[in-house]
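Entry type: protein chain
Record version: 2
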Amino acid sequence: MRVALENYFLSGVNHVFYHGIPYSPAEAPFPGWLFYASTHFGESNSFAEHLPNLHRFIARCQSFLQAGEPDNPVLLYLPIYDLWAVDRGSSDLLQFATVHNADHWLKTNLAPTYAASRRLWDEGFGFDYVSDRALVEMAKGRPAARYRAIVVAGCERMPPATLEALLALARAGMNVLFVDRPPRTAPGWKDWQARERKLSARLEELSWTAYEGQAGIRRARVGAGGVLVGEDLTTLLSYSGVPREALRDTGLEFARRRDGDSVIYYLANRTEQSFDDWLPLACTGEAAILFDPLHEAAGLATTRKDADGRLEVRLQLPAEQSIIARVLPRRVAGAAWVYCRLGGPMPLQTAGWRVQFTTGGPALPPDWTTLELKSWTEGSDAAMRDFSGTARYETAFVAPATPADGWMLDLGEVCDSARVYLNGQRVGDLWCKPFRIELSPHLRPGENRLTIEVANLLANRIAAMDRAGVAWRKFFFVNINYRPFDAADWPPRPSGLLGPVSLIPYMRATP
């Protein structure tokens, strides 16, 4: 779920709500009233106890992503008339522009626009999609100063009113970039020939010249801006003076907003490698505050300026984590962000684990002990294979004598969420990768007792109910293809603490 959320946050979506979760009476037999078209967040789900952690993560991210306004320098025209003109994948000429089927309607039917969006994304040019109506409305008023260019990629059909709006925005100082060529015709049949002549006449009125001797690029000056035509989008953007975020060269992804006189970056490391380096930002500033929305940590980042006066932020961002940076125009006082140098993981030395199933069903399996951590669904025990709920893992270990400023506990692989206690004190919850938590405030010399409560998901229990022919569906319930839902043949999902569990020493580092 967090990975899906990051897709939305990075794409500019900043308001999440939960859809389709029905009210379920407390007396309803397990699993209660479920609706097929939603993730079940009800109390009967073994994940429910950990759900507030997801709520808090979303709330922290949205508190930044809903502030101010998008701060992207590029508009990308969405040629809706080209989409309506094709029949591929439509239903009675109706195109379903769904989020989870973009490969069909966007990548296939609007291939040049899709290619341009990927190019902008991959090379660090923040952009917003723009429609015909939005362009016309923008041309009537004062265009947002943040937009430096409008990209029109391989558009075939464009209303004359949209072209007029583009030229008006060019006169106001923006650059209109036609990738490959300008549009060729007007959409629709009504008065088609007259509108096509109007479109062509306006394009022919432009005085095209080679752009500063650059082969393959033509430019027509229009007021304070201009119209450029060329085959390579990156070259067109560079000749238009559009800044790019060089941070994309590091593999990190971003969304950028402006809130008053500060700039907000949502940064995500969706690679398999931790990032530990200086991060270049395409903005000026005197300070930056880092916010960790997962662990609710904050502090003043160490910064420096590059040769052009742009800010660079010292950043440590583990794989599969995200962070928020607020760039400020002036220096501020406050607690410094804590930078650490991690040591190598030290496998937890224990005499074994005692495992007790505490809540869930259809029945609580018996307690067991193990030296090797593995999924409780392995083996032939049907009670464990069919179980959905929570198991408590307990062990003892001696604190290492290795000198360190602090210690992290790394649980390795967890299926699917965990709550950690040390010496009877609650340390915190782990519900997404990486399953790692600060242990130092609770760690004491000598022997320590570690308790980890791990909850899996409902899949194994639902599959067992379908194999047993239990009638648990209370109303309409189908699979993703709108066929009868049946989980009887689902293989058991791995469940529990899989490890390896290790301790990681760290030293506080000076960037």
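Comment: The chain has a mean pLDDT of 93.
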